[in-house]
Specification:
nine-stranded antiparallel beta sheet; about 25% strand; single chain; three-stranded antiparallel beta sheet
Length: about 290
């Protein structure tokens, strides 16, 4: 039998760590003196202590360490944990690559100043697509995001079809923007996604088309804008470089207090054949 100090010296585990593992039920002493409370460890516990040491050196959580010690298939436990760590490392490598891309590309965006409007538009407001359920797998998150994209696409299609059914024409690429919830409290309900098309036609004084589609007027204004090429931004970059530059220019122009999300429109950019080639972010900074 060895004292806790002797056992610690042989295994490389500190006495403090051994006491902690005892409290967690991972490695208890072989005997405890009822009078002094001194812990005694057996030579037969060295293998378990050595395994704990190397697993903790791999930064594995105590739950996995405990499973590896008690499971009927410890090698299977380690194989699953290795797979988890490899997946996590791939995600970290991708995030670091995205950070490098952001730092290298972030200063290349050109912010323009343009006069726009007035422009009549047709639109449909949809509730912002909710976040996926907590604990969702990557596959479930991808499926959830794809469903949200289909929901938005269906909204744009409803607007387009309502305009054509009313005898009007779509005069340019679609655009969308996020608006604050109707309650004015962004924490109360999800934000609203506005799906819009610029239109022309003899709508008279109508404010509403079929299928819940409404008409509005984009007022004449000065907008700052920046182009974001299609498919160039790594998925880990939630704010593309162009958007960062645009917000910096907006804040310099009108100040932090007046810069709200409602001033931002995201406009589709199409080539001559009508195929998507990117987005244009536009922010109104001054009424004409």
């Amino acid at each position: 039998m060895m004292t806790i100090g002797e056992f610690a010296a042989l295994t490389g585990l500190t006495p403090k760590a051994l006491r902690h593992y005892d409290s967690k039920g991972i490695l208890s002493p072989a005997a405890v003196d009822p009078r002094s409370g001194y812990r005694g460890y057996a030579f037969g516990q060295l293998r378990a202590a050595g395994l704990i040491g190397v697993l903790r050196a791999a930064d594995l959580p105590l739950a996995v360490v405990s499973e590896a010690l008690t499971a009927g298939d410890p090698l299977g436990t380690l194989a699953r944990e290795r797979e988890r760590l490899l997946t996590e490392r791939e995600a970290q490598d991708a995030a670091l690559a995205a950070a490098e891309w952001l730092l290298e590309q972030g200063s290349t965006a050109e912010v323009r100043r343009e006069q726009v409007g007035p422009q009549r538009f047709a639109y449909l407001d949809l509730p912002e697509w909710p976040e996926p359920a907590e604990g969702a797998t990557d596959a479930e998150r991808e499926a959830h995001e794809a469903a949200g994209t289909r929901e938005a696409d269906a909204g744009f299609a409803r607007v387009f079809e309502a305009v054509r059914a009313a005898g009007g024409d779509v005069t340019g690429p679609w655009w969308f923007q996020y608006l604050e919830s109707a309650t004015g409290d962004p924490d109360a309900t999800p934000m609203t996604l506005r799906c819009a098309w610029p239109v022309a036609g003899d709508f008279g004084e109508a404010e509403r088309l079929g299928d819940g589609v409404l008409l509005g007027v984009l007022p004449a204004a000065t907008e700052l804008s920046v182009d974001i090429p299609h498919g160039m931004t790594p998925p880990q970059v939630t704010l593309p470089p162009g958007q960062l530059e645009l917000f910096e220019a907006v804040i310099e122009e009108i100040g932090e207090e007046r810069a709200t999300l409602e001033g931002l429109r995201t406009v589709g950019r199409l080539d001559a054949q009508g195929q998507p080639i990117g987005l244009t972010l536009r922010f109104a900074v001054e009424a004409a």
